[in-house]
């Protein structure tokens, strides 16, 4: 039975990602690099890279665990929402710890706890799409998710970039805005999503054996070869993008020397975010008609081209143009790749499998941070040699992602039961189709 849901329900379940994206895209590219400059100048890339690497290792473990635990959660609020409430509430506390810290170790502690709490919410939240949306709407749902994430990027770049780029930076005001944005987005999702209470009767079969840590995190990739290749492709493409994004502020500051590098990077982030936002939703919709693989390959190609040309930019306007090209590629890739992932994960274990996709997402982000010491080392040996090597490496790994994508079977066309234009309905249909009615 085809149970398409309303557009407003898809919007509600994805509203959380605006606040989540605003928080992390304020912290990672803008607020945290500025805070690092108060502790070190010469080894800024190293300090920032190693700090965020440690935090992302926490995310790598916590997100799949919280997703797996949410698969088994029984509550009046459903399986996912209790975890979203807990994680978002704790995240607000640790943001204040980071901004008030006067010692590097306190910043590191607050950042680690923020990664812990944020990923407690992240793993369960991303399982809402496979829980509540039929496969024929995965493309548009993933497109809206990525559109909202990019709106968070644009807002973070415009607002936090301005606050931190003024003559007198205002980190406390930035954190207050981050907390308010996160809280507002969480409320919309909690109110708008109507999960079926799992208190009385489990929505999915209970495990036959006692659940231990090994069974919670076990991922049988032998029987999921397409999903394992999808994770590898996602890791490689995101590694190329994160490698450049992570050190963008220091690159602009060292190479172009603008008066307000934070504002410049904020403006570039806004332009890139708009490019992603423009392409994210159409890509998700078109992937229902054209298939996931062709659009993913196209996205990899134009992203690699933009990264390859970055080292040739001679002014900030050139960076902006190339950034928009990269943003368009990443917008297409992110939407289509996530729709593809929701197609492939087992329905009853969506929280665990999508949480384990963080092996690619947070794993690529963490790996990119390890490039910091190498950048500092090469920069010491030659003017900006580290940044040039960064662009070459980023291009190479995205091209490897292109090759990996060629080997992933595209079954999206075979699973469509209607035309691509039927993205959603306006009727008063419930948002909680049963697992028996959904494609496995």
Structure description:
The chain contains 18 helices and no strands. The chain has 440 residues and is mainly alpha-helical. The chain has one domain: MFS general substrate transporter like domains (Growth Hormone, Chain: A, Up-down Bundle). Helix 2 packs antiparallel against helix 8 and helix 10 packs parallel to helix 13. The longest helix has 30 residues. The C terminus is likely disordered.
Keywords:
mainly alpha, single chain, 18 helices, disordered C terminus, 440 residues
> What integer value in Å does the Rg equal?
21 Å
End-to-end Cα distance: 13 Å
Shape: globular
Number of strands: 0
Please tell me the total number of domains: 1
Provide the β-strand percentage band. under 5%
CATH architecture: Up-down Bundle
H/E series: HHHHHHHHHHHHHHHHHH
Main sheet attributes: strand count, strand direction, barrel closure:
none
Compact summary:
It contains 18 helices and no strands.
Secondary structure topology:
Layout: H1 7-14, H2 16-36, H3 44-71, H4 81-100, H5 104-125, H6 128-132, H7 138-165, H8 171-192, H9 213-217, H10 225-246, H11 248-255, H12 261-290, H13 292-310, H14 316-344, H15 350-356, H16 358-369, H17 371-381, H18 385-405
Helix pairs in contact: 1-8, 2-3, 2-7, 2-8, 3-5, 3-15, 3-16, 3-17, 4-5, 4-8, 5-15, 7-12, 7-14, 10-13, 10-14, 10-16, 10-18, 11-12, 12-13, 12-14, 13-14, 13-18, 17-18
